Amino acid sequence: MSQKSDSSLQFVFSCPLASGLHARPASHLAEVANQFASECSITNLRNGRVANAKSVLGIIAADVRHGDRCTLHVSGPDVHTALTALRRFIETVLPQCDVPLAPIASSPRSKPPRILQTANATYVPGIPVSRGIGQGKVVILKRMTLPKVAGNPSAGDLQKELGRVEEAIGAVRHRIGEKLKYSLTPTGSAVLQADLAMAGDVLLLEKLREQVRLGKTAGQAVVETGEFFVDLLGHSENEYIRQRSADIEEICLQLLEEVSEISPPATIDLNEPSVLVAETLGPQQLLELDRRWLKGLVIEHSSATSHAAILARSLSIPTLAGVRNARLVLTSGREVVVDANRGFVVPQSSAAVRRFYEREQETLGRRKKMRSREAEASARTADGRSIEVGANASSGEELSLAFENGADGIGLFRTEMIFLGREDAPTEDEQFAIYSEAARIAGTRPVIIRTFDIGGDKKVPYLNLPHEENPFLGYRGIRIYQQHRELLQSQLRAILRASAAGSVRIMAPMVTSLEELLQFKAEVARAKQHLAHHGLEFKGDVQIGMMIEVPSVAFILDELCKEADFFSIGTNDLSQYFFASDRGNARIAGRFTVQHPAFLRFLKQVVEQIRPSGKWVGMCGEMAADLRNAPLLLGLGLDEISVLAADVHDFKRAISRLRTADCVNIFDRAMACREASGVEELLAEQPHPPEPLLSEELVLLESTSRTKEEAIHEMVDAFYISSRTEDRDHLEEALWAREAEYSTGLGHGFAIPHCKTDAVTANSICILRLKEPIDWDSIHGEKVRMVVLLALRESEVANTHMQVFSSLARKLDDDDFRQHLLKFDKAEQLTIYLGEQLGFASSPLNLGPLLTERPVQSRIP
Amino acid sequence: MKIVAVTACPTGIAHTYMAAARLEKVAKNFGFDIKVETQGAMGIENKLTESDIRQAQIAIFAVDIEVEGRERFNGVKVIQVPLQEALKNPENIFSKIQR
């Protein structure tokens, strides 16, 4: 901190947010700045822009991006308190302010699928900003724009006009506040909060007043001011800031309505499945639409970061942006399809288009069903050992995502966020609402709630924790509980009460000694007593466990096992304390990884010492979050791993292909490595455990496809349904590229389309038998009844699977073999027959007892 | 008569091997002794040795791409056809040889 004069101070910071200082964090920062009388300004040292830190608009316009260095300058009567508060905010709260946005959908495909191309369907491309497919009638939204100011400003009563402006601001803020009350999603709330802050922005008010003082009416002032900001933000090089000009325009239109210069736009009544087509769309406009009938959105502006797009994603409304001339091309009242998975609108649906999308809906439905079936099955290794795959979560949203992906529980429910970014401690009831909601969503699945781990990197204003030179080795986690006993009590009571609603467990952070655990248990007992005394319901036998993240506990596990019901290894802190190596220090961060043999040996000791007690031991933290570590995690012998909510499905799939004995072997070899690089190499050389070449989902014996295009598409869909491809277009293109060489029709009613592409996740054989033979441009011009599709991963060509492919190709030359393939009624029979003929085992993975237990499973030795 | 043959197709996944099977089968019907080398996704298999080639009266290339190690066949009479020909009309190829 450098001191310029007595009443002026400044400090330098760099922006910690990945998406920069955008509208939502800026509104929080301005909120803090506005609590003080001092003037606060931010200078972006990258571009030299200076902004009033009390103005959201000003901060946004300074275009502060991730890593930009900025000076915060404060001067005025309360300079010291203001600077301390702002500094604390920037250092501790700001990094948490970045509500992660759902990933923006990929760039659009240039072409629609071949079936639609051959059906001569026209299409209008756009950028998918919220995925999904929607069908409905076009409703065109007329754009409201700020009217041009006509004539000379009429000099009115200055005070009266100023009053109207201020009243209008109050009324608009009230309107937004009302919407906020009924907001259903956190994303919706965050967007509305940013709008609320923008409507009350000091720069906005300043500009409005300036205009009125020039003699303009309230309405004219709003129009001029609106134009000024739309222009200012609209010309930014930053896409995100440009999008904010739509927000400010919407707010100014609302102000204009309030000063009664224009009549509010008629609200759009949707009463049938509809696709809304607009030039731009304000977030509040979107929230006003009847979502039961809103099946899709088509926006002309390219605006993946517009608040409307962000909202559309959170509400799962299929949305395309950047659709040029959409209002001209799409005729009002016409039935259209918005395909925001692929990135185009089909402006007029024909029989072929309808057939395509009917089949598409069926495919998507079957894929969803398939994935949820897989999700429900517990994770089992190929040899049948089960391991719980839980997820880390800190909100209801993450929890839901985790269970959608098949999580067996929540291995770590962090509670710090509930305590951060606020002036007062959360109440017991407030916490109870959050924990019981989590327990309710989880149902019978366990939720491990970790009591607050604050201090160190996470600070909370109302706890008044002292600044420390080395906070990670200081006053944090369980160590502060004695001083903040009442805060702990209220959290424990809230968790215990939530235990009545589901399967909740309590976990203590940063335990270093037995005494701490005993004290913690005493606190839980005290909270129980309190609840019992007040007749409040809770589960008496709630499990109490502890994090293993301080190395000292590894030497007293025999004692701890007598007291703790379960353990969870937190590898982030454990490794940093174990290696005496700060994870945030770039100079040493890469040197000591969780894959280091020293750390692996340590982990092994920990797990082996817990093992005799039969106590449950899981792992949360980054080691468990990395799919490459899966063999190590299984080899270590954990009961559970807790991973990112989004990764649960992938982990379960990976585990189902591993064998316990192999993993134990890999772990032993890893421990024996002399250097960390050896472990990395060891893991890298592990074969990608192969999935069976053929599974029943890839055998389609009753196909009603009518053309070669449909048949190929149906087979590609089968890959998608069984999660063997995530990129259907790419796979389909690869197959057609091969067809372009010469037809893969073989004669005898057979065709053998094939390709080499990494668009498939596993080498596969797919078989399709047609009810009615179709043309295949075959050598003999003969129709095709049976299609055998071979897909090989390009990067894994030198694989034993290729031997299976070549012997299949040879066998297809054999009459007997072909006759056999034609006669089976059931996919299962055909799968078994092929397995026998070609010498590979086949079975659907993850589901039920595994047939893959046959010794012939192909695998690189 | 001793014949050697090479099959190769663009992707090397299916047709290379199908054509090899077809040539072997049809050659047998004609009473020819044949050895077929495949140049596919697994690289060269059933590789023709120097003595295989030296003993052969004729070499059949049923290929859509360049034959790897073509120089091995210097001095041997070669019939080259598109791979499809070996699948469509293998008999034609052998009838020609017979004549």
Descriptive notes:
The complex is a heterodimer of chains A (861) and B (99). In chain A, strand 23 and strand 24 form a beta hairpin. Chain A contains 31 helices and 27 strands. Chain A has five domains: 2-96, HPr-like (Histidine-containing Protein, Chain: A, 2-Layer Sandwich), CATH 3.30.1340.10; 114-143 and 267-361, Phosphohistidine domain (Glucose Oxidase, domain 1); 158-258, PtsI, HPr-binding domain (Enzyme I, Chain A, domain 2), CATH 1.10.274; 390-684, TIM Barrel (Alpha-Beta Barrel); 696-853, Mannitol-specific EII, Chain A. In chain A, the strands form four sheets. In chain A, strands 6-13-12-8-9-10-11-7 form an eight-stranded mixed beta sheet. Residues 1-5, 100-106 and 842-861 of chain A have low confidence and may be disordered. Chain B has 99 residues and is an alpha/beta fold. Chain B has one domain (2-98): Rossmann fold. Chain B has helices spanning 15-30, 50-55, 83-88, 90-98, and strands at residues 2-8, 33-40, 43-45, 58-63, 77-81. In chain B, strand 2 and strand 3 (43-45) form a beta hairpin. In chain B, helix 1 crosses helix 4. The relative contact order of chain B is 0.25. At the A-B interface, strand 25 and helix 29 of A face helix 1 and helix 3 of B.
Uncertain regions spanning at least 5 consecutive residues of chain A: 1-5, 100-106, 842-861
- CATH H-level superfamily of chain B: Response regulator
Total of helices of chain B: 4
The best one-word shape of chain B is globular
Number-wise, the strands of chain A total 27
Strand content of chain A: 15-25%
Strand arrangement in the largest pleated sheet of chain B: 3-2-1-4-5
Query: SS-based structural class of chain B?
Result: alpha/beta
Could you tell me the CATH topology label of chain B: Rossmann fold
The rounded distance between the terminal residues' Cα atoms of chain B is: 12 Å
Major β-sheet profile of chain B: 5 strands, mixed
For this structure, the CATH topology of the largest domain in chain A is TIM Barrel
What does the average pLDDT of chain B come to?
92
Question: How far apart lie the N and C ends of chain A?
Answer: 62 Å
H/E topology pattern of chain B: EHEEHEEHH
Number of domains of chain A: 5
Main sheet strand line-up of chain A: 6-13-12-8-9-10-11-7
Fraction of residues in H or I helices of chain B? 25-40%
Which architecture of the largest domain in chain A does the CATH hierarchy give at level 2?
Alpha-Beta Barrel
